[in-house]
C-alpha cells in the first residue's frame, strides 16, 4: 500500500469482544505483547491516543499465537486488564488478513488514514524506541497535518521493530 | 575467552549489540573475537537454548542472567537497561560486568 492509496476497511474484535474498524481519521498501529520495540514505544502510543480526541486509534496484534503464546488473544486480554484498561481498543487479527492487506512488516508499524480512508503516513512512531522524549513526534506531526486537512511533511519512515510473526 | 553472539534475522538489534560487545572487549583489553551464530529454526533455538535475539555468551554462559521461565524460540529478547527502560539490546555496562566476571574466574 502506497501513500495516497485507499486503505482496506476491516472489522476486528477487541479484548472485550467488540468489533472496531477505521472510522474518520484513524491510526492503525500493528503491535504485539512480546516485542521489545513495541514495548519501548507502547506508552508513547497510548499517550497519542489520549491526546488526539476525535481520532480513531486502533492497535492490532497480528502475530501467530501458536508459535508465540505471549501474543494469544487471552494474553492480550490479560495485558489490557492488568493495565487497568487502555485508551484505545487492542484488536486481534487472528487470520493475519488485515496485516497482510496493509503490508505490515514489523511491530510496531504505524499507519495514519485520513477521513476518506486514504493512507497519509506509514512508518515508525519516532526516531528512537529507547527515548521517551521523542514523544512519537513523527506520528504526531502526521496526525496534526491530516487533522488539518494537509499532507504530512514526512509521509513515510522506515518501520522499526520485530518482524510480524506470520503463520 | 570464547565470545559468541547468537542472533535471529527477525530482530534488527544484533548489529548494535555486536558493536557494543566489540567496544567493551576492546576497552577491557580482551583480544577475543566474536563468533556470530545465526539461529534459523525453532528446533535450533531449543537445541542451542536460545532465549531470543540477541544473546551473548561468554565461555558458554549467558552474559545476562536468564529468567527461568524464558522459553527457547525464535523471538526478540527483552532486556532492561540500568535505568529501567525496556530495550532490545543488553545494557553495555551489563556486558562489561560479564566480561570482567569471566576474566576474574579464569
Protein traits:
heterodimer; A: 167 residues; alpha/beta; Glutaredoxin; 5-stranded mixed sheet; two-stranded antiparallel sheet; 4 helices; 9 strands; 26% helix; 19% strand; B: 106 residues; alpha+beta; 4-stranded mixed sheet; two-stranded antiparallel ribbon; 32% helix
Tell me about this structure:
The complex is a heterodimer of chains A (167) and B (106). By secondary structure, chain A is of the alpha/beta class. Chain A is 26% helix and 19% strand. Chain B is an alpha+beta fold and 106 residues long. Chain B is built from three helices and six strands; from the N terminus they run E-H-E-H-E-E-E-E-H. In chain B, the strands form two sheets. A four-stranded mixed sheet of chain B has the order 2-1-3-4, with helices on one face. Chain B starts with a strand and ends with a helix. Chain A binds chain B through residues 34-37, 39-40, 67-68, 129-130, 132, 160-163, 165, and chain B through 9-13, 42, 73-79, 81, 85-88.
Give a summary of the structure in a few sentences.
The complex is a heterodimer of chains A (167) and B (106). With 167 residues, chain A is α/β, with parallel strands linked by helices.
Number of helices of chain A: 4
Lateral strand order in the biggest sheet of chain B: 2-1-3-4
Strand content of chain A: 15-25%
CA-based gyration radius of chain A: 14 Å
Q: What sequence of helices (H) and strands (E) makes up the elements of chain B?
A: EHEHEEEEH
